[in-house]
Write a structure and sequence with these properties.
alpha/beta, 6-stranded parallel beta sheet, 23 strands
Amino acid sequence: MTDAGQGTHAHYVVIGDNPLAYRLTRALSTRFKGTVTVIVPDATSRYAQEMSAVDGVTLLEAGRIDEEVLTDAGADRAAAAALVHQDDGGNVALALLLREAWPELHVVVRIFDGSLGRHLERDHCTVLSASAFAAPEIVGAALRRLIRLPVQHRRLVAVADGETELSTRMVLFATAKDGTVTALPSAEDLKDLRPKVHLADAAEEDVLPEIKADLEPDEDEVDPHRRRRFGEYLRTLAITSGWNLLLAAGVLLVVVLIGAVTIRLATGSSWAGALYEAVLPSLAGSDPDHEANPVVKVTQVALTIVSVAVIPWVAGVVVDGVVRTQRLLDTGSPLHPMADHVVVVGLGDLGTRIVRSLDRRGVPVVAVDFDESARGIAVARARDVPVVIGDARRAATLRAAYVDAAQAIVVVTSGGATTIGIGFAARSIPRSKDGPRRLRTVLRVFDKDLSRRIRREIPDSVGLSSSFLAAPSFAAAMIGQEVKATVPYLDRVLVLAEIMIMEGSELATMHPTAVDFDGAQENGDEVKSRLLAIRTKHLGGGGGGRTIEPSEGWYLTGGTTIVVVATTAGLRRLRELARVPVPRAQVATGLNG
C-alpha cells in the first residue's frame, strides 16, 4: 500500500473497458489528482484510447488477469482497485484474487446481483451497482416527479421545474435564456437565471408516494398475494376468441330456444319442461321416446342433427381461445389496450431495475426487448408486467406496446445508434386521443454533446448516462467518501455526500460557512458546495451522534461529519480540506512505490 493512503494524490487500479471505467478513471486522475493504471483486454478499443489520452493514466493490455498482471499494474502499492467489468462472475473472481494477494487493499466491485454482492462485501471491499444509482434518477426523469435525497434528520426533496408547493431551501440548478445550466447558483446569479431544480424540506405528508421507495433491492420481490385473477383470465379469453366464440354461442342459444318454443307449443308443457326437453338432445343427446308427440320427435331429431355441427364448433373455438390465452399469459404480451403508462426498451441490468422500480411504485409499464432471453424478461413476467418481443425501431413493435398512448418511453439499449433510432421512431407514432398529449422521451446517451443535440430534435426529451450518474459514487468509494445520492439535470450532476472531518485537518475548528464554495474553476470544473447538515461526533461516555442544522454558534470539529451537496470538483476540494495533509516527501515516496 502507498504511504499516501486512500484519497487524493494516490495510485489506483481500474479493471474494465466501458463508459464507467472511462469516467471513473478520468475522475480519479483529474479531479482527485491520482495516478491510474487501467487493465483492458484490447488497448485499441474506443474507451481504452480515450482513457490513455488522460494525464496520469497508464494503459495495461492483458487478455487474462492474474497476480503478475495486477502487480505490474501497481496493485501492491495502490490505495484502491475498481473492478467495473459488466460480468458479475469475472468481477467476483478478481475480487477474491485481490483479497487473497493483498488483504489490506480496498476493492470497489461493480455487481448487479445484490445477493452475490452481500456475500462478497466485507472490510476493504465495497460492492456497488451502476444501475442502482442510475435507475431512480431515470425513473424520476420519465415521470417528471420528485427525487428524494436521504438525510437522516429531515426529508430533502429535489423539486423539478414547475413544482413550488414545498418550502424551498436552495436552488440546485438554474438556466439562462440561452439554455446554459448553472449548478448551485448564488443569490446574485439568480437575478438573471431561471430556477429549474429546487432543494426543499418536506414533511411526511408532503412527499408523493412514488418517491418514498429507496434504491431498489436486487431481489425480485413479488408480492405473494399478487396473482392473476380469474376475471382477467376470462377477459383475455374473450379477447383471443373474439367474435368466433360469440357467434358459436349465439347459434347454439338460438337453436335451443327455437326447439324449446316448438316443444312447448306442441305439448303444452311449461317453459322449464320445454327447455329441459330441448337442451338434452342439443348438448348431450337423449334416449328416443317412441310415445312422444310427432312434432316433439321431429324437433328432437333436428336439434340433435344441428348440435352435431354446432357443438364441435363451439368446442373448437373454446379450445383455441384457451390455448391462445395461455400463450399470451405465458409470453406476457399486453392483454388489452393501455394508456398513461411507461414503455421501457432494453431489459439489461439498468432496464430491469427501471421496470422493477416503476412496477413497485404502481406505475403501469410495458417492457420491450429484441432478445427473448434478455435478463429482465423473466423479472417482468414474474411481476405480470406486459412484455413485447421485437425490434423497437419498428412501428409495429411500438404500437404493440401502445406507445401512442404512453406518458413516457425510456430507452436504455446498449447501442447508441439503436437508442437514438428508437427515440425518433417513438416520436413518429401519432398520439392517441386516449393518452397524454406529449410523450416524454428518456434516452441512455453517453455523449453529453449528442444528448444536447437530441433535446433540440426531440421535444420533451432528456439524455442520461448510467455511467455519468454512477461514476461519482464509485470514485468516492475508492477515495474513502460516501456519496448518498446524485441529482442530475440535463448534462450536469450534483452529489449529496457525507464527509468525516479528521482531527488536525483544515476544516477542523473552522466556521460552517467555510464549507460553502462558489465560483472557482479547476480543470474546467466548477468548485461548488453547500452545507446541509452536521452530524456530531459520538462521545465515549455516550451522547453525541446528533444531526443538527448549521448555525453561527457551532464550529466544525474533528470527528464530526458534514452532509453536503456539491459538484464533483467541490466534493474533491472538501475531501482534501477534511483530511490531514500528507507531507510532500511522504506522498512522493508512496507514489514511487
